[in-house]
Amino acid sequence: MPPHTSAKRNTVISIAKAIAIILMVIGHAESPDVLHRFLYEFHMPLFFAAAGYFFSLRYLDDEMTFIKKRLKGLYWPFVKWSVVFLILHNWMFDIGILNEVYGNESGGVTHPYTWPQTEQCFWNILTAMGGYDQFLNGAFWFFRGLLVASILYLIIYKLLYHLSHRYNQYHRVGKYLPFVVCAIPLLLAGWKTYEGLKIITLVQGGYRELMGAFFFGCGFIFRQWEHRYRVKWWTTLLFAFIVWWFSDNLWANMNWRSTFEQFLSLPLPAILGCLMVYNISTWIDKKEGIVRRFLVFCGDNTLPIFIFHILSFKIVSLLKIWYYGLDPRQIGCHMVIHEHAKEDCFWILYTLAGVGVPLLFTWGYRRVKAQWQKASSESQAC
C-alpha cells in the first residue's frame, strides 16, 4: 500500500473555497469585464483542485468508500435539489419569477414544462445529471463535473498503480505517477478539443470533466509538495499579473464549448490563480478575526450558495426594477437584469445577496435546529 497523508482539518483550504465561491457569484452577477475575465481564469479550477487536495491513496484499495462518499456528497444533493426546482419550475411562472419574455444575455428564454417534458427532465436528472433548471440552477454542472472527474482520476490512478506493481516498476516510477495520472485527462481534453470530439454519454460533451480531473490531480500533487512551498508576497503579485495578462490576451475558462486554443491557454493561469488564492488564504488564516471566521464558515458551506445564489439574486432584481423603473417581468432575466449591468454597481448588491442570503438561512436554520434539539433533550430528561 502506498504511503498517504490523512486529511486533517485545513482552514486555509476552507478560506480558499470561500474565495472561489464568492468569485463565482461575482462572475454570475455580471461584474465589470476586467474583473469577470480575470476571475474566470481560475475560480472553477480552484474548486476541483481543492477537492483533489484531500484525495487519499488509501482509496486505491478501497475505491467503493470513495465512490460512496462522492455519490453522497455530489450526486444526491444534485438529484434532490434538481428535482425540487423541477417541481417548482411551472410555479415560478405563476408567481412571476420566470417568464417567456426576458431571459439570458443572448436572448434565450425558458418556458413552462409540459408533463412529458417534466418526465424527461426527471429522467435526465437521474441518469445523466442533466435536465436541471438552467435559469435557476445554472451552476449545477459542477456536481456532475466533480463527480465524474474525481472518479475518473481514481480509475486512472488505480490502473497505473497496479500496472507498475505488476511489472515491478513502482519503486522506479511511483513518485512520478501523480504527474502521469494528471497528464492523461489533460491530453484527452486536448485531443477532444483539437478534433472537435464529444463524449456522448456526458452532458455537454465531457470537456469540463476531463479538465476537472486534471485540476483535481493538480490539487493532489500540491498536497504532496505543500511542505516545500513558500508563500511570498512577490510571487502572489507575479501570479496575479500573469493571470491578468492571460485574461486580457488569451482568455479561457472551463466553458464546455472551449476551442483548442482556449484549452492551451487555460492550465497555466488556472494553476497560478489557484496558488495566488492559496497565498492569500494563508495570510488570512494567520489572523484571527471576523473576516477569517466568516470565510471559514463560507468555505464550509459552499453548497447552499451553489444551490440558491441565483434565486437570491431575484431580491436585488426587484430593487433594480424599482430603482430604474423597469418592466417588472425583468425579474426573469438570467442570471441578473442585463439592462445597465455594465454601467452601474448592482453587481456588488447581487454578490452580497448571492452569498449572504444562503449563508444567513443556513446559519439561522442550524441555530433553530440546535435550540430545538436542546429543548427536546431537556424535556426528555425531565
Report helical residue fraction.
55-70%
Parts with pLDDT < 50 across at least 5 consecutive residues: 1-7
Strand content: under 5%
The SS-based structural class is: mainly alpha
Mean pLDDT, nearest integer? Answer: 94
Gyration radius over CA: 22 Å
Order of helices and strands: HHHHHHHHHHHHHHH
User: Biggest β-sheet, characterized?
Assistant: none
Annotation, overall tally of beta strands: 0
Question: N- to C-terminal separation?
Answer: 52 Å
Shape: globular
Question: What's the oligomerization state?
Answer: single chain
The number of distinct helices, counting runs of at least 4 residues, comes to 15
Report on the structure:
- By secondary structure, the chain is mainly alpha-helical.
- 69% of the residues lie in helices and 0% in strands.
- It contains 15 helices and no strands.
- It has helices spanning 11-28, 33-40, 43-53, 63-94, 115-128, 141-166, 170-173, 177-195, 207-225, 233-249, 260-265, 267-285, 290-299, 302-324, 346-381.
- Helix 3 packs across helix 12 (267-285) and helix 6 crosses helix 8 (177-195).
- The longest helix is centred in the C-terminal third of the chain and has 36 residues, at 346-381.
- The model is unreliable at 1-7 (pLDDT under 50).
